[in-house]
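Weekly structure sync, notes
Attendees: PL, DS, HV (note-taker this week)

Item 1: Homoserine kinase
DS walked through the input record. Source organism listed as Bisbaumannia pacifica. Sequence as pasted into the shared doc:
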Amino acid sequence: MAVFTPLSETQVADFLERFDAGTLTRLEGVAGGTENTTYFVTTDRRELVLTLFEQGEHEELPFFVELLDYLDEHRLPVPGPLHDRDGTALQSLAGKPALLFPRLPGKHPKDPNLAQCRALGDALGRLHAVSRHFPGHRPNPRDLNWLVAMHHRVLVYLSPEDQALMKDEVETYQGVFGDASRLPQGALHGDLFRDNTLFEGDRLGGLIDFYNGCTGDLLFDLAIVINDWACDAQGRLDADRYEALLGAYQARRPLSDEERKVWPMMLRLTALRYWLSRLLVVYVDPPAHDLTPHDPQQFRSILLERLQHGALPLPERSQP
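Item 1 (cont.): predicted structure, written out as tokens:
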């Protein structure tokens, strides 16, 4: 979240007239983030978040609206976008696509405890259970096909050892997932790191920033979560967080036999996904705005840890 397009109070007050959301009383630009302009908007009736989309494929925004509407209708803790008086969510403001959301309660957990891990696992399990019936479709933009196509672009910047590591991993994934039977499919968040969640104490206030949302292997989404939520600073899996999150998840959506079989490899694939995407930002395709890229070495360390130690055993169910 950041402010790349300045807005006046008059502009936002006029914008709010399209909605049944009250009258503007306060406007606050939100610093930080990476791609979009974000404001906190306070009216005489509620707290809102206004997002202007600065980059990306704008033609894909209707998919995100459809996905958030669907999850909101199924009572998932997501910011279902506000629709205007004519029933339209996606708007234009200052020449940019714009969406208005309810402001969800809470803050990002830096060091999640076991209760927060269980809450996140429960919510993600619910999300995946209902998302299997979501009618929309957007292919996963960071799946194995992307890894195969894009990893060549960073090899020249890597040591010979890391070049061999990356090429060997991609070849291995092709062998495993190319021959695997089709894994359970559905809608994914696609980037559910700790900073894309909000908590009030141990209570999950919301899952936010669905702009990597797509449809594909549900296990891909779960592996991204575990590599962040159940991982220490050295990339090692924390057994207690791992079991709390996965146990709560499987109480909502038990993993299939095929998912359990390829689980260790999916943890490796999603670690390489972030190592590669961060290398691309550093060396090949820097962001349009003056922002500090994430460190690629974090996910190189996670990948090496998964290679050396594999995955912890998968729990069957959460404990009552």
